[in-house]
Design brief:
elongated, Pectate Lyase C-like, little secondary structure, 3 helices, two-stranded parallel sheet, two-stranded parallel ribbon, 3 domains
Amino acid sequence: MKAEEFWYRYQAGERNFCNLSLREFDLSQRNLRNANLWRANLSDTDCKETILAGADLRSAVLENADLSQADLSGANLRGANLIAAQLDDTIFRAAIYDCTTQFPAETGPWQAHAYYIGPSANLANAQLSHARLEGADLAEATLSNADLQSSSLFGACLKQAQLMGANLQQANLSEVDLRSTNLKGADLTHTDLSYADLHKANLMGANLTGAELQGTNLQQALYDETTQFPEDFDPQSSGMLWIGPGACLWHADLSGACLAGADLSGAVLMGANLTQADLWGANLTQADLSGANLSQAMLWGTCLEETDLRNAILTETSLQGVDLTPAILNNADAEQIAVG
């Protein structure tokens, strides 16, 4: 294909140019917004001042390409090869890259303006709507309040990620690993969660109206009275755990759960596993926590009025600002708290 034919097809509305060789083409000052150039060969190509905003450049070869003053806003650079590319004044705003992306130097403007996709990445408030993130490893990443509307995360790993308040409307989360992920307050309206694993995920306050839940694993996922489900969906039959006043959580596994601010007054948590759980500011008035394991749990500011903590394990439990006077304890517990 010659440069003239490529440009003619793009102007005619075609956007799919994956696997094509555009080597040494003169594409300077062209508008190639949203072009699909996945695995395309753009080595030695002149893209000076070219608009490539929103372009799919995954695994594309851009070696020795001139991208000076090019606009790569929102472009997908996962796996792209930019070795020896000229990047003077290139715009990387909201572009995405990962550990397989090859840049001409170890540091550059992409680090300040583009989004790194990888484990433990900080993507809070990130603008990632319509992003192609299939198979991405975002385990333990922070995506609180991120905009992921209509994005594709098929087969991605989001285990233990923070997605509080994230916009996931109409996103493809099919077969995604969401185990122990915090989706509190997330918008999952019309989201495809088919065959996704949400074991122990936090869905308190989340909106799942119209979501696709075929084959979804929701065992021990948390929900409360503000969680919205698809019509005729029964959370209890799916093995979910209700969090609220008087909840029956006898011997429940809530290890690592984010229950900050939760109202668990009068709840039955006898023998529950709350190891490393976050109960900051929670209301545990008259709750039964006898025999519960609260090792390394966060109880700062928690209300323990008439809370039954007999035989509870409180090793290394954070109790700053907690008044244990009204709690029901035994002597062994008191000694353990003093040591911890």
